[in-house]
Amino acid sequence: MKSFDNSDKHRRFRPSSKSGFGGVAIGNGFNVNPDLECLQCISAAWDAGVRYYDTSPWYGLGISERRLGLFLKDKARDEYTLSSKVGRILEPREDFDVTQAIWKGKMNFAYRYDYSADGVRRSIEDSLQRLGVSSLDIIYIHDLSPDNGDFGKDWLQYFEAARKGAMKELTRMREEGLIKAWGLGVNTIEPILKTMEVADPDIFLSACQYSLIHHEDDLNMVFPKAAERDISIVVGAPLCAGFLSGKDRYLYEDEYPAGVKEKLAALKVIAENHRVTLRSAALQFCAAPEVVSAVIPGAHTVQQAVENAASFSEKIPADFWTELKQKKLIADNAPVPPA
């Protein structure tokens, strides 16, 4: 397969600020979160200056998009950046059992995969209806990845369908001005590297791959190649689904990988010694690389939204980062924020 020729470059769109809002929790990720609580949370994020919001049809099978849309309906469309995803088409079904996923409560929708050109158009139209907005800025092709349990060993077949369908259609939509940018939203690096070889993406949502706990793969394999193409990275799950901010879970799995609890304990000790909030350190670490255009921690309460937004401006001494590198808790070549 020939590598993509990027000789005809265009200026790639980036969110206007690095502090963003991830929509998993407002889609009843991990818990049934009340409508009012979620709306108040989004409002608190807005009041704290957050202007980039990411969601997906998959998040609560439509719940995240509907809740976010209820808030955004009173905001001018040019005041914020909005991204959603394609790859799954939702179909009304009140008896659908989604217990294999992290979504809690009653969903009332089933889903089917569709990475075709027509599927992309259909998915975006459906998202616009659920959100109640006239346009989306960024579209991510969602979960086109070997860790997707629905795909098993067949993920490359889905990738090929997306290469022929979704990727070409999204490039066409960008050229038509219907969207500003497109990429993948995935939890592994293999699809990102492969997409850069065969298509012309602008931005990737790389989740689970860049955090204080685990970052070497993105840092050494993805970031340099993306920077060469002026492609930016949005960091998803920067707190490891709450692991770095006090939640008793690590990412989206039921089990803890070897060594992560020990690393967390070591990070906490150093943070306490330097009087640094670990959540702030985690979010600023993710925002430090030049190639990163946004960091999107999730939230479903006012307190979480306010704390996340404030974390990007907390002063962290240079000695904190120096000690993390000395003790091999972060990579020597990992960018850190200025003191």
Which blocks of ≥5 consecutive residues have pLDDT under 50? 1-8
* CATH fold category name: TIM Barrel
Shape descriptor reads: globular
For CATH, the homologous superfamily is named as: NADP-dependent oxidoreductase domain
Percent strand equals 5-15%
- Give the fraction of residues assigned to helices: 25-40%
Question: How many runs of DSSP E, i.e. beta strands?
Answer: 10
Which CATH architecture?
Alpha-Beta Barrel
Q: Give the H and E element order.
A: EHEHEEEHEHHEHEHEHHEHH
Reconstruct the topology from this structure:
Blueprint: E1 20-22, H1 35-47, E2 52-54, H2 63-72, E3 81-86, E4 88-92, E5 109-113, H3 117-131, E6 138-142, H4 155-164, H5 166-176, E7 181-186, H6 190-198, E8 203-207, H7 216-228, E9 232-236, H8 260-273, H9 278-287, E10 292-296, H10 302-311, H11 318-326
Helix pairs in contact: 1-2, 1-10, 3-5
